[in-house]
Amino acid sequence: GCAIFYRTAKFVLIKEQLVEFNQIAIEHANGHEDMLNRVMTKDNIALAALLQTREPCWESSVPPDPSQVAQPILVCSAHIHWDPEFCDVKLIQTMMLMEQLRQIVESCGHSLRPGHKKENNVQLLLCADFNSLPDSGVIEFINNGKVAVNHKEFKDIAYKECLLKMLSHTNNDQQFTHTFQMNSAYSADLLPFTNYTYDFKGIIDYIFYPKGAMKPLGILGPVSEEWIKESKIIGCPHPHIPSDHFPLLVEFGLTLGVPRSSPVNQVMMPPPTSHAAYMRRMKEF
């Protein structure tokens, strides 16, 4: 399941949307057997909430231009299919997700702030269990904004025609693309794993933010590996760690009037040195 919580004192909910990947598969299958038998049968979802900032959100840094106080932010929480044998489904679900988010931005952006370009109007904050490693086609697609139509993770299945029709914003028949420019808030050297089970340990959970428009101010580090070894934890869930997924937590600053291509300097909080410090850090956030 997915959920999005927000502080009503700091944000206004403009729109919410449920994304059901199996329904999108039905809509775009056009009789394609693999789209129906492989993609449609997976019941994963995503939630999107279009929020608008209130003045208290800015704390002591209220924009000098009153019209900039109400900034639109599209927050998305998603859960992509888990099974490694269905890497094609993971990639297609991610493509469906980015296309649905593009449509939300396009339909809402201009109405929120007339006179601004639609795509630059709404900033996307994407938080997801992609069930995909950093070198996967899924993360390649998110990071680079494109993936080849013959990518190996499509398993040589002829999805091309269906997917090109679904991605109505592009005429490129050699690459599937999306319209967002995203950075990952976490890197492997900061957090070596987000999922820690008895037979698998790796990065499969992510927070992506818009390049140039947001700046990470603080990032929660990992559970101390020394503490894990001392406690002889070989996998989670565990009495001290109730989930096999470790929490990702980032505090962002929203920049105004900064081009998307501008560099963003990240200020990261160092990882806690113990489990107690880790739990204190969680409470501080």
Your description of this structure?
The protein is of the alpha+beta class. Helix content is 27%, strand content 22%. The chain has helices spanning 21-29, 33-39, 87-112, 118-121, 137-144, 160-166, 225-230, 275-284; strands at residues 11-20, 45-53, 72-79, 123-129, 146-148, 175-177, 182-184, 195-196, 201-202, 205-210, 214-219, 250-254. The strands form four sheets. A six-stranded mixed beta sheet has the order 1-2-3-4-10-7. A two-stranded antiparallel ribbon has the order 5-6. Helix 1 (21-29) packs antiparallel against helix 2 (33-39) and helix 3 runs parallel beside helix 5. The chain starts with 10 loop residues before the first strand and ends with a helix.
- Estimated share of beta-strand residues: 15-25%
| Backbone CA Rg | 20 Å
Major sheet summary line: 6 strands, mixed
| pLDDT < 50 stretches | 258-275
Cα shape: globular
- Strand order in the largest sheet: 1-2-3-4-10-7
pLDDT averaged over residues: 87
Euclidean distance between termini CA atoms = 23 Å
Query: Which range best describes the helical content: under 10%, 10-25%, 25-40%, 40-55%, 55-70% or over 70%?
Result: 25-40%
Query: What is the N-to-C order of secondary-structure elements (H for helix, E for strand)?
Result: EHHEEHHEHEHEEEEEEHEH
Number of helices: 8
According to DSSP, the number of beta strands is 12
Structural class: alpha+beta
